[in-house]
């Protein structure tokens, strides 16, 4: 037996080493069987182990490439699906507006609003971008909604609203057309909805008649400077004998009056809590405000003390004991409160009410010693004279009663307890004394309770001298004193030539003077007289 051995191949595993030829080994039968079995399981050895390894590496590389390609394909598919989902909603809005207008004043407001609502099940990511572009006459709103989901329900609504407000005489026709198209695409569901809305609105025709009215002294009136008035009065309302009553031919303590351009007479019948209208040549009144019972309901009055007609024919009433100003629109028996007493707008007992050419309302608030101005559509007053405690100062009043506004917005106030008449230029709270001198008396220079005042086209001032039962006239030469023109008997009474407590006075369009003869419960008219040859009106 040879004892030589064959060296192992250096690059082969141990189990590949050859068995020495002719070698003698002492083995058991069990060992032999194990060796035989192991030999059967030995794989075929390639001729070149390097080629084997290279081949193996190439196959691994190819597998990696295939895996990456598969991932890329899956990602591309996801991107494609995402692009389909991300397709934006397309909205086309067309607004066509045609307006035909015949008007003095027209205001039109158009509003377009877009609302988008999205309801989503499962997982949802939503992004919304809204862009609004406005061009004259056209408003376009575009909304883009991005949604990634498996199931999506989208509702898009576009609403077009056209509002037209017209004043004076106006006919306006507006045609508005809106078309909305929405396209929504999802992974599993595709829905298409088209909404078309068409609306046509025609509005409106409003006609208001502006009247040239006759407030306290007609502004267009041209009274000659030498005019006088008949000293015998004609009873236009109430009973000539001075008796009072609740019937439509009687009055009870009338106060303020108003005469319009048609010679209709409006009377504040204070103690009957109503406003009566007397047409020319009629001594039976028509109730136009209040119902004859005291109350604070919209159809009631309580001690009304001022009345005037505004430029639209509405009746404005100083509802004194209810501390409010009521407006009765053309024939309505239901009053609308346009101003009332409040913490921010103190309003006490009102003694008179006038309206100027701009439809501003002036009320004399004797409780607060002031005159308050209310501009149209405002319920908050502006103090234009007085205010604060009573006093004789030029910026003070003491229990003021009547007021008058001339066409130049100059304010005149009958300052009762200061026995004078004050004149205020626009914007000034410091007045000038133009009648009386602060002392009560019966001489031509004095007054005893100046209750009401009006001014004519010449600037002459007419005052109801309540305490002396007469009507006084002051020219522009204030220092010369006044002259008595009505009720100059020196005593109060019920005779046609007498007055008893003259409370208010107004001109009609002819220059005649109407007087509230309060204590005699009647309204007296005194006719104007001009010399046959006339006189200068300048």
Automatic annotation (TrEMBL):
NHL repeats lie at residues 242-281, 292-331, 490-529. The chain crosses the membrane at residues 65-87. Pfam families: NHL. It comes from the Eukaryota. SUPFAM superfamilies: NHL repeat. Signal peptide: none annotated. Residues 115-172, 184-206 are annotated as: Disordered. Keywords: Membrane, Repeat, Transmembrane, Transmembrane helix. CDD domains: NHL. The keyword Transmembrane applies. GO terms for molecular function: zinc ion binding. InterPro entries: 6-blade_b-propeller_TolB-like, NHL_repeat, TRIM-NHL_E3_ligases. This is Uncharacterized protein. It comes from Rotaria magnacalcarata.
């Amino acid at each position: 037996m040879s004892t030589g051995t064959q060296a192992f191949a250096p690059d082969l595993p141990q189990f590949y080493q050859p068995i020495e030829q002719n070698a003698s080994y002492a083995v058991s039968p069990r060992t032999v069987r194990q060796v035989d079995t192991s030999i059967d399981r030995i794989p075929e050895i390639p001729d070149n182990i390097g080629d084997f390894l290279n081949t193996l590496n190439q196959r691994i590389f190819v597998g990696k490439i295939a895996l990456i390609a598969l991932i890329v394909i899956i990602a591309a598919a996801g991107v494609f699906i995402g692009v389909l989902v991300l397709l934006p909603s397309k909205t086309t809005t067309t607004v066509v507006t045609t307006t035909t207008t015949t008007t003095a004043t027209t205001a039109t407001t158009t509003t377009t609003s877009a609302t988008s609502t999205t309801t989503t099940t499962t997982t949802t990511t939503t992004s919304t971008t809204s862009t609004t572009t406005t061009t004259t006459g056209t408003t376009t709103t575009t909304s883009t909604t991005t949604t990634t989901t498996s199931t999506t329900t989208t509702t898009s609504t576009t609403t077009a609203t056209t509002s037209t407000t017209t004043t004076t005489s106006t006919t306006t026709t507006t045609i508005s057309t809106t078309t909305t198209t929405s396209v929504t695409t999802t992974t599993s569901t595709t829905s298409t909805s088209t909404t078309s809305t068409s609306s046509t609105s025609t509005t409106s025709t409003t006609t208001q008649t502006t009247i040239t009215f006759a407030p306290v002294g007609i502004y267009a009136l041209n009274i000659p400077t030498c005019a006088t008035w008949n000293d015998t009065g004609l009873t236009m309302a109430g009973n000539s004998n001075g008796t009072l009553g609740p019937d439509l031919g009687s009055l009870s303590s009338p106060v303020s009056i108003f005469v319009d351009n048609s010679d209709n007479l409006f009377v504040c019948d204070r103690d009957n809590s109503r406003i009566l209208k007397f047409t020319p040549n009629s001594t039976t009144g028509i109730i136009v405000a209040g119902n004859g019972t005291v109350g604070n309901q919209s159809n009631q009055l309580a001690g009304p003390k001022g009345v005037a007609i505004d430029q639209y024919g509405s009746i404005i009433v100083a509802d004194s004991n209810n501390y409010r100003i009521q407006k009765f629109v053309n024939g309505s028996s239901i009053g609308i409160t346009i101003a009332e007493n409040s913490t921010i707008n103190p309003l006490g007992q009102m003694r008179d009410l006038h309206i100027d050419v701009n439809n501003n309302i002036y009320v004399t608030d004797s409780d607060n010693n002031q005159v308050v101005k209310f501009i149209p559509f405002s319920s908050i007053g502006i103090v234009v004279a007085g205010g604060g405690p009573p006093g004789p100062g030029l910026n003070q009043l003491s229990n003021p009663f009547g007021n008058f506004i001339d066409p130049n917005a100059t304010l005149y106030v009958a300052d009762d307890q200061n026995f004078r008449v004050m004149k205020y230029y626009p914007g000034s709270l410091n007045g000038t004394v133009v009648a009386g001198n602060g002392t009560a008396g019966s001489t031509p220079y004095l007054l005893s309770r100046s209750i009401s005042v009006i001014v004519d086209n010449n600037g002459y001032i007419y005052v109801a001298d309540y305490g002396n039962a007469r009507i006084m006239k002051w020219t522009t030469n204030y220092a010369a004193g006044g002259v008595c023109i009505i009720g100059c008997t020196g005593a109060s009474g019920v005779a046609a030539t007498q007055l008893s407590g003259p409370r208010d006075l107004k001109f009609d369009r002819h220059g005649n003077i109407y007087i509230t003869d309060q204590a005699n419960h009647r309204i007296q008219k005194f006719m104007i007289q001009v010399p046959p040859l006339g006189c200068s009106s300048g």
